[in-house]
Amino acid sequence: MKQTPSLLLAALLCATSAQAATPTDILSKSGCLACHQVEKKSVGPAYKVVAAKYKGQDAAALVMAKVRQGGKGVYGPIPMIPNGPDKISDADLATVVDYILKL
């Protein structure tokens, strides 16, 4: 039976694809890192600055709404465009917002 290596390879590929994406993977895949970085300001604020702004608050729903609706003026004059579910799913958005607020 020469099929055993093929079956093993298929099982490994399935196991790898079933692993959950990390917040950094999601941020990269969704294009968020084009304008934001964790430590320093880029086009938009650093994620650590966002985390500091909402420290001690239950702000996940507020931050998620800001990502979905976009906005301007909170961190400077450059507006953030709205980011719909076609760009980042609700589940992925919840994951990254939780990650950002814990920085």
Automatic annotation (TrEMBL):
Q: In this protein, which residues make up the domain named Cytochrome c?
A: 18-103
Q: Name one Pfam family in it.
A: Cytochrom_C
Modified after translation how? Binds 1 heme c group covalently per subunit.
The keyword Iron is annotated on this UniProt entry = yes
Q: Which residues form the signal peptide?
A: 1-20
> Which GO molecular function entries does the Swiss-Prot or TrEMBL record give?
electron transfer activity; heme binding; iron ion binding
Binding site residues for heme c: C32, H36, M80
List keywords of the entry alphabetically.
Answer: Electron transport, Heme, Iron, Metal-binding, Signal, Transport
Transport found in the keyword field: yes
Q: Which domain of life is it from?
A: Bacteria
Q: What is this protein called?
A: Cytochrome C
Species source reads Rhodoferax fermentans
* Origin organism lineage: Bacteria, Pseudomonadati, Pseudomonadota, Betaproteobacteria, Burkholderiales
